[in-house]
């Protein structure tokens, strides 16, 4: 008997987002830009966080993400 469950195959894409404001904004910038050309993104994982320091203050945030999306059938 068939089940309602679907088998999914995901492609993983690596993105790097940046922001002068926050790590959260860097994530949102990467996902938002990718969403313009990539369909069916399902999840993300932050794999690296970096920043730039200038005169003793954080000036720039950079986040590397792994994003999974469903392959079309």
Automatic annotation (TrEMBL):
InterPro entries named among the record's database cross-references: Dodecin, Dodecin-like, Dodecin-like_sf, Dodecin_bact
NCBIfam families (UniProt xref): DodecBact
PANTHER family documented for this protein: CALCIUM DODECIN
Full protein name: Dodecin flavoprotein
Pfam families in alphabetical order: Dodecin (PF07311)
Cited Gene3D superfamilies: Flavin-binding protein dodecin
Source species: Bradyrhizobium centrolobii
